[in-house]
Amino acid sequence: MRYKFNTIEVDTEKFSLLTNGKETAVEPQVFNLIVFLIHNKDRIISRDEILDNIWKGRVVSDTSINNHIKSARKALGDDGHKQQVIKTTHSRGYQFIAELEGDSNSTETKTSTFQPKKFRSNILVLSAFIVLTLFAIYYYQKTQLRQSVQKIANYQDMAYATFVAQAKRRNELVDMIEKRIGEKREMQFEKYFSYYFKKLNSQEKFVFYQIRAMTENGLYQNNLRILDELNGHPKIYKLIKGSKELQQHLTFWINKYHSVFTQREDMCLLYVGVEDDVPYPSEVNKNVKDWLLSHSANPTHEIDNNSQATTPITEIKTIDDDKNISTGTPKSLAVLPLINLSPEKETDFLGFALTDQIIGKLIYNRNIQAKPSALVRKYNKGVIDTVAIGKELNVEYILSGNYLKQDDLLRLNFELVEVKSKELIWRESQELPYESLFKLQDSIANTLSQKIDMGLSFEEYENNKNRQPIDVIAYDYYLRSIASPITKDGNKLALELLGKAIIIEPNSAPIHTQLALRLRYGTVDEDGLNKARAIQHLIKALEINSRYFAALRHLSRIYYDTGEFLKSYNLVKKMLIINPKYSTAYYTLGKIYRKSGMIEQSITMFKKALSLEGNIDTRNQIGASLFSNSQYQQARKYFDPETKNAPSLAWQGSIAIRLGENTKAYKLYQKIAVLYPESYWGKDAEIFMAIIKGDSKNGLQQLAIQEKRYVDVSEPTYFIASQYAAFGDRNNALRMYEKAVKDGYYNLSMMRSDSFFDFLRKDAKYIEIFNLAKQKHLAFKQAIADDL
Asked: Would you tell me how many other CB atoms lie within 10 Å of the CB of residue 13?
């Protein structure tokens, strides 16, 4: 059967789609979706019908449907704005609305009508086989192409890193030669070093050969790899602007490397540029990464700066102004690890793993504030006093339980207790096949919502539907990885388990998210590779399920840590749209605002987080923001003088120093050093005690060690710079100050009020760094101006 409309012809027998007579490549499911909509052109088709007919009821994310609709529109020359072929009817579904040319049945030939059934059946089987084969080839080629572009991006990053390092050594060598010879460089670097090669002393030659080694290894090897990928996939030239010019540039560079560089000992650099008529296309690196981003599944765009949640923060309903959701604060709850009743330790992993999954489901309920799984992990040993734990965690409700696995069955018992009244609210026993375990967290989360009298709205219920991996083996691997301890051996085991799980279920948002966590926080990072891989897994998780809270939360945290505030900010906005009462989102916003220099907004967000879920850490953050704004007395109100909490004691010590109360400050730092001798806070306390005593030798030694502990975290880096300044160490203070700003710290209020930097206020380098911080502050503020 053939359907014609506009310039399109859809042939269901040949499985082809022609545009102006030319075939357009369409994935099988997208083709089936188009045909299904055409067949039912007289009515609106719901998303459930699409699921039943295209995916045969298989569980897929909303994102998959959205992507297929978008792909169908693209293939038909339509888009979400025009909607001239496929129309969206809000909350109801989709309808094919283009006008078909004549009666589609008339285009069928008579012979096709009277084919013997067996012959037609064979033709259909053969056609299906051919289509599947062609699709497999197409998909393989598409995958190979993307892998090639990804390799190019990786090699570009390594080549650029080598170039930056080389340029630094190049400039150092020029300085050495100029100071010794007394003549300014007036030649191209390449020629300059060749000209002076025979006059170099031993120290200069050492640097010269370092630079040469960078050319021979980092640049040559990576440039050659990029060129091989480009020559192996010439289709890239049509897809990525500047890639052909890059191929020409690298071809010339490689030829010059072999014909000149390897033949001459007096060369350490190799330049190819405008003078050779093959300059490096400066935008191609960005174009490659943009292409990779745009050719991931569509939800990747949702985490890009320009296309994330567009609702302003001021328009997101919160606890203060949301009358339609509920009144008052959410109910606070802690879910304790389930106790294994079996003497067999093989199933111990289920206790914490299932708890973690239930907590993850409760995040979507804006009327329940569940304690994070990290806080309850320690309550996994034997008999527990639920009421005592409830008071310790400062929650209104405690869910506890136990389980027993026998053969392929799992027996579970749950109890929900109200802490204040000690009343048993709910008790239930369940028995289910182990293979149905992935359904458990949905059941428990929804039951809890009802028993606490805070039921899910219809929208929340839909968003809370299970999107976990269904394969029982993959899910078992995944649960075991969650339960694996946060230790070197535990992380190694978790990564092995997740590696097996992802082979079985490559499109599981939870598996990708857990992989990211173990890579980012559970292993030693080398050259930022783990962070980059973690980001890739989190992006993939959001492609699969754009509303997966754990992925949103952890990706926003990585972007926050690396100073990419706008990316982090947009992800947090999306979390708040899903759950406007999610305290962690306000907490993260508070930290973003403080590091970017927006102190009043920071305090407001932390106070919202505190109103939703009161804890000492949030109080510390409010105090820290007030401290940044020189509001020392107000800040003190948020710190408990009798506490043993290290950050709280440290901030109190900093306030005391700023107010000239050195004796009080010293006692506070002594307390920290005794309680937490090997922690960041303990070492920080030792440095401050050295500042108070004027012991610069010991203090500077400790600072050198402290630097290595927080290499890429900008806020501690700034305070290390401040401590260097307190010792009068200009060079290290400015070095770390500049690093902090470049890594994402531009809290101007803190910088202006920091008395340790007073002796550097008129220093040209200090002014330069401060102005850079000011530019970054203003740029971020302008980027979110609509939200303020």
From this structure: 14
